[in-house]
Amino acid sequence: MSPRADRPGFDVGSLSEVFADTSEVGPRTLYNGEYDMNTPSIPPSTPQFNINNISKRQLTHRNMSMKALVYTGPGTVELLDRPKPTVQIPTDAVVRLLHASICGTDLHIIKGDVPNIQPGLVLGHEGVGIVEALGSAVHTFAVGERVLISCMTSCGACQFCRRGLCAHCTNGGWTLGNQIDGTQAEYVRVPHATLSLHPLPESIDSRAAVAVSDAFPTGLECGVLSANVQPGATVVIVGAGPVGMAALLTAQLYTPALIVVVDLDDTRLATAGRLGAHATVNSGSEDAERRLMELSEGHGFDSVIEAVGIPATFAPCQKLVGIGGRIANVGVHGTKVDLHLETLWERNISIHMSLVNATTTSRLLRLVESGRLNISSLVTHHFPCSQATQAYDTFQAASRHRALKVAIDF
């Protein structure tokens, strides 16, 4: 139930049971010119991969099967044998997975909330792995190289990619685990590999790096940048799931004066405190609204990040935003919400929403490599491939298991 404006305190709903992985569905907008259309030139000495001249290992791999987590119908996923993918066109790559993480979007698929997805699809759009095979047009990677797989597939040439709106790529977008088989398998075919893969430096732990496939770009692009977080600003993040935590970590790069995290789960709030939140508020407490107003000195917050995606969490954001502030809606809403224009119109506020374009992924990896961004806390649970269905059970009951991101290891 949505809270009433005249009711003392407010209930932002069961944040711990709703996953803020709205990043999951992908894209947002181009920020600060992050998207770079300049493809590195190919040195004359670079050997050209010929799709008809495949190594023995690749040829063998072509005829073998693999384990994959397959959506078999509403409410069910199964670990099945599937044929290994192969390079189909020159811009493809095949990646052998090391880790693939589960996103809230995957849960929506299993529940039958994404009707365009039919049974038989391999799930997943997040992963880290090793290049197994390359199409002849892919020159920026080598077989055997460690790579991060972007949650967004980008051709780099269509009208939307040229504007940095890679989530709306006419030849890609949210492709893996949606239009074609995804990353929750021993191998995956990645279209448009030149822009859809990122080199993963050896100094970065692959087990933690899987969170940079989706959660961190979403937290930064859809949360921090959409909310216009500025030095000295006040920020409140509603929802301490994986994307909310990623927003917390990346917001600190912009040196706001105050970051407050709101959730119902005290364990997650304690984690948020350790990760840099200046204050935390349990939304189930009777004095939650009063406490939040005190923290903002009665003015409301400059930047409000909604990282859940239900009416009960969007409603208080409209009360928390200060004059001239901005609400960034990161959560993926499955139902309509009330928008109180009768109280918002005179406060000069902005509301911004978008899909994750993952145009900041390279920048995020540089921040991790330099030690400026600590990503080690987001992936809390790892399961071997043989226990992939147990990984889903854990993620679906994340609060009970004290889980944030859950990964499957291959």
Automatic annotation (TrEMBL):
Question: Which keywords are on file for this protein?
Answer: Metal-binding, Oxidoreductase, Zinc
Q: Does the keyword Metal-binding apply?
A: yes
Where does the Enoyl reductase (ER) domain lie? Answer: 73-408
Instruction: Give any Pfam family that matches.
Output: ADH_N
Instruction: Identify the Gene3D superfamilies for this entry.
Output: Medium-chain alcohol dehydrogenases, catalytic domain, NAD(P)-binding Rossmann-like Domain
**Entry-linked InterPro entries:** ADH-like_C, ADH-like_N, ADH_Zn_CS, ER, GroES-like_sf, NAD(P)-bd_dom_sf
For molecular function, the Gene Ontology terms on record are: oxidoreductase activity; zinc ion binding
Q: Which cofactors must be present for this protein to function?
A: Zn(2+)
Q: So what family is this one in?
A: Belongs to the zinc-containing alcohol dehydrogenase family.
User: What's the protein called, per UniProt?
Assistant: Enoyl reductase (ER) domain-containing protein
